[in-house]
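Exercise 7.
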Amino acid sequence: MNREKTTAIEEANDIMLVRSPQRGRATVTHAVVVIFLEFFAWGLLTTPMLTVLHETFPQHTFLMNGLVHGVKGFLSFLSAPLIGALSDIWGRKSFLLMTVFFTCAPIPFMRISPWWYFALISISGIFAVTFSVIFAYVADITEEHERSTAYGLVSATFAASLVTSPAIGAYLSAQYGDSLVVLVATVIAVADIAFVFFVVPESLPDKMRTSWGFPISWEQADPFSSLRRVGKDTTVLLICVTVFLSYLPEAGQYSSFFLYLTQVIEFTPAAIAAFIAMVGILSIIAQTLFLSVLMRTIGNKNTVLLGLGFQLFQLAWYGLGSEPWMMWAAGTVAAMSSITFPAVSALVSHCASSDQQGVAQGMITGIRGLCNGLGPALYGFIFFLFNVELNDMQPVAGRPPQRAEKSMIPGPPFLFGACAVLFALLVAVFIPDQHRSADVKTCKTGAASSSSSSSAHAQSAGPLATPTSDAEDIEPLLQDSSL
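Solution. The predicted structure, written as tokens, is:
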């Protein structure tokens, strides 16, 4: 009798970790709201960011922009494995709170002190790994067959946050000045932090965690150790090389593309906001509707290959295009290329056992963090070599804006990125097809097989054990992925 009572209490405790009376159970909706608020706040700052960047670094703007984001990305690379491993032990919520706080911390300093603002952006890279924790959070509460749809939803939310926020920020900046935009962005960032603290529940139950006293070895915290571990498994190595080659140009593009549109293609702030909105809307459609259909029809690997093909076409068009309509057309292709990351994240998640999702996603986020360091610096350096500078943010009325000299290749860094994605496409061809057999798992990471107990758990409970034994604790939004 006592044993039955003890068992019942333990099961109740496990469920309470995911479903508390005050806050409810952990769902994908919590992850979606956190991502939306964080990047909506940053999206508001698109126009003020261009102004502050040019005022702070009037000479070699592209180069300094690349260096600032490069330092941030490299610090993210160094910290991502440790944060991922610690979240596997201590739970996701505390680290989600930490990453959101430090990612948003630089926002108010844009008006207080631009130099402090850029310094804090660089330093915030130590904790700016929100996506790593979010994807581990989602993996805790979804089954394997639901995960690609869930990752697509999270990535689509990132795009949705940028649909209207740059336009709103540009309007507020033109009507009321940059100070109001920074204030609104700060308020939204504070609301995001409060939402994580008061509303978001823990997704990782006690039975999925290691003891609080369990030591973290240097090998787990060393990002280069993660890279060395990658080479022990051919499949994981191919996935990671694909991520590196495809995200390196994406990171560089993300840091400098709006400056490029302003300087070389002569986009106005309103045109940039409209461009972001168009790409954002199309990305939402691609990552929700098309991604779900593609994953079911052509499989995970072929979805990755298709996304890389779109990215290759997009970067080549950005590099060779010299007219605004070409950028708009390439933007539609860029939206379709957004399916690559959620498809790769789902592929990586299938490779990891349920108690190693943070480590697995931390490894990929670490590689992306390395790209976030190398990509912007590389793009900035290439722009610097080709003498592309931000000469005039606001041309004098009645005078045509100062235009960069015509060249056969308007955007050399984008052509370099197209070459990198071409190599990524060739590498991805050799990734084993994960959907050939439902009974055979062809991919196991070193982290997932680090102990025999975790392997036994993965075999008995599948690649992802649900947080509780109750079927109701699976996220209902993703139960039926049919359209």
